[in-house]
Amino acid sequence: MQVLRVLFSVLAFVTTALAVKFEVEAKPQGSHPRCIRDFVSKGTLVVANIKTTATVNDGQSLTVFILDNKGNEYGRKKNAGDTVRMAFTAHTDAAFDVCFDNVLTNSRSNQKLSKNIELDVEIGANARDWNAVQAAEKLKPTELELRRIEELTDEVVRELEYLKVREARLRNTNESTNRRVKMFSVGVILSLLALGAWQIYYLRTYFRSKHII
Question: Are 19 and 94 in contact (CB under 8 A)?
């Protein structure tokens, strides 16, 4: 049992999790939102838990939305309250942004308004409700930990496979670039040789026409 706990701790350490606290200042409509970025692979479950210091009619309105760099939007919550939970499954391998747009609704207020944000992003096996899994499948504590370790291991394997594919793609790009650079260098050398030969021919023709040589 102790071995399982140690193994689970190691695997949990290498999985992705993000927890940050920051402040979002209220700005006029159309201002650039504040975004936090992370990367996720295709088919991975992501859960974003957000806590804010939100009160009603405080002169600011917070909108929370999630989108990736492919243009997919996974959720949007307007007038977000003190607690927001947003979950989605990634459509593709991409970086995703959890964005906060805090709009100033009371333009006459001279006071600087802001909201404190606490963002906790859980990805993959860490995002699953394991208590619900245990209750639904009637798993013993040891079986539950083995199940969690299995999913964490699968995530690590998928991540390694993705890195392997990415490394191969980058290597192919590098080799293609090297070939193009070599061809360009050869082309430049041949062009210089041709230009030099033409200059020699032109000068010899010119000097002969002037009876210099």
Answer: no
Please check whether residue 83 is in contact with residue 30, taking contact to mean a CB–CB distance below 8 angstroms: no
Q: Say which amino acid occupies 176.
A: S
Q: Residue ranges per domain, the chain?
A: 18-124, 129-212
CB neighbour class for 36 (10 Å; exposed up to 12, middle 13-18, buried from 19): middle
Residues written for the chain: 213
**What burial class does residue 160 get, using C-beta atoms within 10 Å of its C-beta: 0-12 exposed, 13-18 middle, 19+ buried?**
exposed
Query: Residue 190, SS3?
Result: helix
pTM higher than the cut 0.85: no
- The pLDDT-based confidence of 1 (bands split at 50, 70, 90) is very low
Q: What is the pLDDT of residue 109?
A: 62
Q: What is the 3-state secondary structure (H, E, C) of the chain?
A: CHHHHHHHHHHHHHCCEEEEEEEEECECCCCCCEEEEEEECCCCEEEEEEEECCCCCCCEEEEEEEEECCCCEEEEECCCCCEEEEEEECCCCEEEEEEEEEEECCCCCCCCCEEEEEEEEEEHHHHCCHHHHHHHHCCCHHHHHHHHHHHHHHHHHHHHHHHHHHHHHHHHHHHHHHHHHHHHHHHHHHHHHHHHHHHHHHHHHHHHHCCCC
Going by the DSSP 8-state scheme, the letter that residue 71 receives in this structure is S
Taking domain 18-124, whether its CATH number is 1.10.260.40 is answered by no
The partner residues of 175 in beta bridges, in order of sequence, read none
